[in-house]
Amino acid sequence: MTETTREQPPAVHEEILGYYARGKEDARLREGGAPAGRLEFWRTQDVLRRILPPAPARVLDVGGGSGVHAQWLAEDGYEVELVDPVPLHVEQASRLPGVKARPGDARSLPDEDASYDAILLLGPLYHLPERSDRVRALAEARRVVRPGGPVVAATINRYAGLHDLLREERYFDPAQRARTDAASTDGRHDGEGGLFTVAYFAQPTEVPAEFTDAGLTVEGQYGLEGLAWLMGGVEDWLDAPDRREIVLAATRRTESEPTLLGASAHLLTTGRRP
């Protein structure tokens, strides 16, 4: 392991740990969870299978939660290690065949330099409100990925909360509307109201600069849900396999259209260590 002394980052916000300790994240993304979550799950699979090096590459899933993505990656033949700050998530992921799980913080990884073929940060960045922490997490990913290896990070788009509350008709509540309007102004979500926890909602144009500051070469951006997640009837479409594939194909057609990147709830940005 490279002998370096790095200042330890501040502890993960207690509100974030408490929110995920409820154990609801796993169901959100799997079958039976919220429709938008299932679309996010399938579209993340779709994009990653085009970006990642072939199995059996070594993948580090940073902030990988309960192992929802680590599970199918292991089933695809990847060697998967998962790091997460939530004890419940580590416990859940450690039960999955082919997945090694341990506690850890995206901003300070104990792994050796250039020790993985690919790094995923599908959760950490939007729970780091400070830009310096997001860049630090990306820099750690750059350090532990091999030269030329991909780093894939997820962010929540600036107006995702506003769109989601409109879709669910919660935006008509004055208190919810005030919090949502504030978050869509500066990107900072304080976790009050119980619908989500402490988070940062990014503009799509912000993320490439953070990759660059971390020493990564940006390769692309992919809107995951497109406009489909806001459409009435999407629940039935996702439950019918033939219609689901058509929805996924349609969303794929517009996934990197610059004018539509912010319409998705989630955005994947990809880069590589030079």
Structural overview:
This protein has 274 residues and is of the alpha/beta class. The chain is 39% helix and 18% strand. It contains 11 helices and 9 strands. Strands 1, 2, 3, 4, 5, 6, 7, 8 and 9 form a 9-stranded mixed β-sheet that branches. The longest helix is centred in the N-terminal third of the chain and has 17 residues, at 35-51. The radius of gyration is 18 Å and the shape is globular.
In short:
This protein has 274 residues and is of the alpha/beta class. The protein has helices at 14-20, 25-29, 35-51, 68-75, 87-94, 131-144, 160-167, 174-186, 207-213, 234-239, 241-253, and strands at residues 58-62, 79-84, 99-103, 118-121, 150-157, 188-189, 199-202, 217-223, 266-272. The model is unreliable at 1-5 (pLDDT under 50).
Amount of beta strand: 15-25%
Distance between the termini: 21 Å
Q: Would you count the extended β strands for me?
A: 9
Q: How big is the Rg? A: 18 Å
Mean pLDDT: 92
Largest sheet: 9 strands, mixed
Note the main attributes of this structure.
274 residues, alpha/beta, 9-stranded mixed beta sheet, 11 helices, 9 strands, 39% helix, disordered N terminus
List the helices and strands and how they pair.
Blueprint lengths: L13 H7 L4 H5 L5 H17 L6 E5 L5 H8 L3 E6 L2 H8 L4 E5 L14 E4 L9 H14 L5 E8 L2 H8 L6 H13 L1 E2 L9 E4 L4 H7 L3 E7 L10 H6 L1 H13 L12 E7 L2
Parallel strand pairs: 1-2, 1-4, 2-3, 4-5, 5-7
Antiparallel strand pairs: 5-9, 6-7, 8-9
Helix pairs in contact: 7-8
